[in-house]
Q: What sequence folds into this?
């Protein structure tokens, strides 16, 4: 029989189409993912780069807010066309929210007459109202000396006084947050014990009066320390009031600000690439290690990073044993029948339950029932204040563990099923019991697959937001779940979370325009955190794979 | 020779009059669900000899060998009838614990299946699971077992390397060393050479010849020459039935049943 060349090529073409179709499917998926990641990466990194400022001269009376003079200074956020000729609008970050009302401004291209030199423009990060962009006029140093902006020493002295101000600001923060906070907690705890004893006394239970006295003495001592610290804070605050900067906005308004309101000043148009790079790194450092300010739109997000990390680790610690043990029973011990089949279908379907449902369950079961019971039994003296009976990092981790347990079960079952039959049989034939076989042979060989399940669970858990809102995530947590006060791990505390932070910044913030850069930066960070956690698990998996490799052929 | 070749040649032979029968099957049948894999087998396997089980694929050889150490317990939906006795004691007796039974019976599989552990750990696995901890004892067992498996000289300098660094033939000898580490009474071998080249096969066969001085060996094989070379007795199974059983020499030279002859001369199977 002869082959018809037409048939042959026709057959091959048929196959080709499928190849192309699947390849374009993959291509499209990759493209979308890369576009999303690229957008987040570019936008997220850009946030920290000091952008050049422009000074625009506008047609008079185009912008009623621009003030006496038709000038506007700021950094360009969006620039669709050229001044004068275009029909679009430039989006500028103009700062000075206290005077302009909003920090962002849209200027019609038609109205822009031209750009003017902007070398002297200064950007100041402030404690309140975001950035200020201005031409400095003169500085009154804390010692009362007046330095004009034209003075050659002006910038150096200005910088130096701002550095002093910033270190005082951080000192005040430390005092208020950490030391006064710790004292407050001690005082509260003593006070609760005292009230508890008094209540017992009222109820007719014998109470050692010396005990009460001791409490009062130590409380008074603490109160004294508290007063000292408070006085220290007041002194520092007063120092912050000394000295001021007098400046004029591009639009003409003049203003005087106490130096204590400023955190950092810089002149982006006078910085070279290296200075900008150093500034960029410093801003990233502050972002990663600092605490949030101004409704989370400024400052750092360390508490959220830490909260996400601790929660993910706790979740993994909870989900691993549960999921793995359940899978071992299902695969190794249970009789493979109709019932097990139903259980398996049920487990798979659990993965499809909306996460908010887990949140509701977590709230009802973990927080109200378990937490409430724990409070009744062990923390009754604190009632009606909830200890475990409110949302907290433990309950959030357990809720997420419950949510991700199907992922781990499915992955573990697959891993157990793929352990070669020969290894099991050899072990059993050597006189090992079923459990010994599982423990010594099956689990080590399945470990890489089990870790894959954990990676998937972590990726899902770390990015989840909806259930957390019900079981312990907050916009601003005063304390971290781990700190230096006994018992060091505070599982009952509420915590901050990167995913929730993104939601809160993007959709709950009073000034969503100012929050936008932070949303991108936070998103980038959350993705990086998930990648880091996954990489850790992947490295561990590869290590185990190499160790338990069962094939040399 | 005469006494031995008289009675046991019969498929349903009574106990060996010489009293050497060690593993004894009594009307043993085995079912996978509704499928009968073994049909009322009754014969004896003598002590410290090599007994080969031959027959075409699916005839029940592996099922039979795996019945002896109750590896079939792991398969779902199976049942058996009749009995298997070792030294007169039923392996299915409720007093017999399957773990202690398997400790008395070593097993070597078709695919060499060392554990992903060091050579040392592979050999002493059965002692580890019995809770033996003394290093000196373990060292001794490793050397003795590896020497018995003719592997000692090749691996004595790399005992702590992963077993998967060995060649296929070495791995299978390691599995034999593992099977005899516990000093069992019986060694079951399920086609131990089917994945090996002729040279490695030859070494394993030499080894089987050595081992039968101390152990009762039951070997399943597809290779007629191998059965003829290594075994003292041969049982031919077909469709779950014992067709012919007897001294290897007489079975191969003058089979009494035409089916046996057809199989060993390669006309079917």
A:
């Amino acid at each position: 029989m002869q082959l018809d060349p037409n048939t042959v090529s026709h057959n091959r073409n048929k196959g080709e189409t499928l190849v192309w179709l699947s390849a374009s499917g993959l291509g499209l998926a990759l493209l979308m993912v890369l576009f999303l990641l690229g957008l987040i990466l570019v936008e997220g990194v850009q946030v920290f780069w000091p952008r050049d400022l422009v000074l625009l001269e506008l047609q008079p009376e185009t912008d009623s807010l621009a003030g006496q003079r038709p000038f506007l200074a700021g950094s360009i956020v969006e620039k669709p066309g050229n001044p004068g000729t275009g029909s679009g609008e430039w989006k500028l970050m103009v700062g000075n929210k206290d005077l302009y009302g909003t920090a962002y401004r849209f200027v019609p291209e038609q109205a822009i007459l031209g750009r003017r030199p902007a070398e002297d423009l200064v950007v100041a990060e402030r404690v309140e109202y975001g950035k200020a962009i201005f031409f400095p006029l003169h500085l009154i140093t804390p010692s009362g000396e007046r330095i004009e902006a034209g003075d050659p020493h002006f910038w150096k002295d200005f910088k130096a006084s701002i550095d002093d101000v910033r270190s005082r600001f951080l000192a005040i923060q430390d005092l208020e947050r950490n030391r006064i906070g710790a004292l407050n907690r001690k005082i509260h705890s003593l006070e609760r014990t005292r009230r508890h004893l008094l209540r017992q006394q009222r109820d007719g239970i014998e109470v050692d009066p010396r005990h009460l006295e001791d409490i009062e003495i130590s409380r008074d001592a603490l109160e004294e320390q508290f007063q000292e610290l408070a006085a220290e804070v007041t002194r520092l605050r007063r120092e912050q009031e000394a000295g001021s900067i007098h400046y004029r906005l591009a639009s003409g308004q003049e203003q005087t600000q106490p130096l204590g309101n400023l955190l950092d000043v810089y002149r982006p148009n006078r910085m070279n690439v290296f200075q900008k790079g150093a500034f960029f790194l410093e801003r990233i450092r502050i972002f990663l290690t600092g605490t949030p300010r101004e409704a989370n739109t400024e400052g750092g997000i360390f508490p959220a990073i830490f909260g996400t990390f601790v929660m993910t680790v706790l979740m993994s610690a909870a989900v691993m044993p549960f999921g793995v043990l359940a899978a071992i029973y299902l695969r190794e011990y249970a009789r493979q029948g109709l019932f097990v089949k139903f259980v398996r279908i049920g487990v798979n379907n659990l993965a499809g339950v909306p996460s908010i449902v887990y949140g509701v369950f977590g709230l009802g079961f973990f927080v109200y029932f378990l937490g409430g019971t724990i409070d009744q039994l062990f923390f009754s003296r604190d009632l009606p204040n909830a200890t475990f009976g409110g949302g907290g990092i433990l309950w959030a981790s357990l809720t997420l563990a419950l949510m991700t347990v199907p992922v781990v079960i499915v992955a573990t079952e697959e891993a157990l099923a793929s352990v070669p039959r020969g290894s099991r049989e050899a072990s059993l034939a050597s006189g090992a019991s079923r459990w010994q076989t599982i423990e010594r042979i099956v689990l080590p060989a399945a470990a890489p697959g089990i870790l894959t399940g954990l990676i998937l669970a972590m990726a899902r858990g770390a990015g989840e937001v909806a259930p957390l809102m019900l079981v312990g995530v907050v916009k601003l947590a005063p304390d971290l779940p781990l700190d230096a006060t006994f018992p060091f791990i505070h599982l009952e505390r509420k915590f901050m979370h990167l995913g929730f932070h993104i939601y809160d910044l993007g959709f709950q913030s009073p000034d969503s325009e100012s929050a936008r850069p932070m949303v991108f930066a936070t998103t980038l960070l959350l993705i990086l955190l998930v990648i880091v956690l996954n990489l850790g698990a992947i490295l561990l998996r590869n290590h185990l794979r190499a160790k338990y490799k069962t094939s040399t052929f | 020779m005469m006494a031995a070749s008289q009675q046991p040649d019969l498929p349903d032979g009574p106990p060996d009059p010489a009293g050497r029968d060690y593993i004894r099957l009594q009307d043993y049948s085995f079912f996978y669900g509704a499928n009968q894999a073994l049909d009322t087998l009754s014969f004896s396997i003598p002590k410290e000899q090599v007994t080969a089980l031959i027959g075409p694929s699916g005839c029940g050889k592996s099922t039979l060998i795996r019945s002896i150490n109750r590896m079939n317990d792991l398969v779902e939906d199976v049942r058996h009838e009749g009995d298997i006795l070792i030294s007169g004691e039923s392996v299915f007796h409720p007093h017999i614990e399957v773990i202690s039974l398997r400790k008395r019976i070593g097993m070597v599989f078709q695919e060499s299946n060392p554990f992903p552990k060091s050579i040392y750990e592979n050999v002493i696995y059965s002692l580890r699971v019995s809770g033996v901890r003394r290093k000196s004892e373990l060292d001794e067992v490793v050397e003795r077992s590896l020497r018995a498996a003719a592997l000692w000289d090749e691996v004595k300098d790399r005992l702590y390397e992963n077993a998967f660094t060995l060649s296929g033939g070495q791995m299978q000898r390691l599995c034999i060393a593992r099977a005899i580490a516990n000093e069992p009474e019986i060694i079951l071998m399920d086609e131990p050479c089917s994945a090996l080249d002729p040279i490695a096969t030859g070494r394993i066969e030499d080894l089987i010849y050595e081992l039968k001085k101390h152990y009762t060996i039951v070997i399943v094989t597809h290779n007629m020459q191998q059965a003829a070379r290594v075994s003292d007795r041969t049982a031919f199974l077909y469709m779950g039935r014992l067709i012919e059983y007897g001294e290897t020499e007489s079975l191969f030279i003058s089979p009494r049943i035409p089916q046996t002859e057809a199989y060993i001369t390669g006309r079917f199977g």
User: Anything to note?
Assistant: Residues 135-148 of chain B form the longest helix (14 residues). The interface with chain A takes residues 69, 71, 74, 76, 99-100, 102-103, 105-107, 109, 111, 113-116, 125-126, 128-130, 162, 164-165, 175, 178-179, 182 of chain B (CB under 8 Å). The mean pLDDT of chain B is 84.
